[in-house]
Amino acid sequence: MTSHVSSLSHRVRHGALAALALGAMHTSGYALTVYTAGPAGLIKALADGFEKQGGEKVEVFQADSGKVMARVEAEAGNPRVDVLISASWDSALDLHQRGWLLHYRSPLAKTVPTAYQGPAYVAQGMSALTIAWNPASGTPRPSDWKDLAAPAYQGKVNMPDPSKSGTALELISGLQSQHGAQAWKLFGELRANGMHIAGANAQALNPVLQGAKAAVFGAVDYVTYAAQAKGEKVEIIFPSSGTVVAARPMMIFKSSKKPEQAKRFIDYVLSDEGQKMVANAYLLPARADVPAKRPALDSFKAFAQESDAQRAGRAALLQRFDELFVRK
Fold first, then answer.
1. Which pTM does this prediction carry?
2. Spatial CB neighbours of 239, under 8 Å, sequence gap ≥ 6
């Protein structure tokens, strides 16, 4: 079993019981079934738009990354999913290595950067990991990750749980790749400073919006932009030392009984109409020729894409982080 598979399996054990508790999803005989982590409003818009364009009815299971991947694993003997949209690039690499994915390159992926597509997967869009800060918290405005370990933030910082949030795990891996042992020194300082590991992304952000916490270490930017759009007084800060850009891969399962409809759905998401919906959710569109509604990639410092070798150690990273924070 590969390291990618180990990483996926390690994360799955955290969410398997929760996913199974949701019960069997009703799947009609003609619907295209899409599992997705991420914005519920976005997948509803995409499903409705696809149906209006003449596609089949789309049935959706939407949850956090841990629950979505746990469901995929739980149904491995009798797969129901046709298309998976994940919040972590690792999931696409894992499932591709296992031979579960259908090779498909959409003709509409020509302007998707090479780093964000593969033989059996392509990005829907991208997000960046940021600091979400409440300016009414009485704390100094942070400019970099290390600022949140300062005494002024004692007990006032949340971080999404990497066993539930694929993007949080991406951030841990990215920080280690960039800074090595210094990244773990920082995590130790954050733990000593009382950083709390919350649930998935929204659960980490909500206490900051409500004023119970001052900041989120590793806030997903599109979630925070959506909160701003609703009038929440929260600031999005791109750390000065750099951050991770997390792509959201789309993939079709070989087990799909509707592969042509699944391909049409991928094409629709990558169409002008679909990518505008992605932009409206405050994600960075996968296609470089579609404008974003938030700061573009060249407006902040992004870490270089990790190699497969760097990604391969993520199961150990998650275990180390778990031991540091969850079982401290």
1. 0.83
2. 130, 131, 143, 144, 145, 301
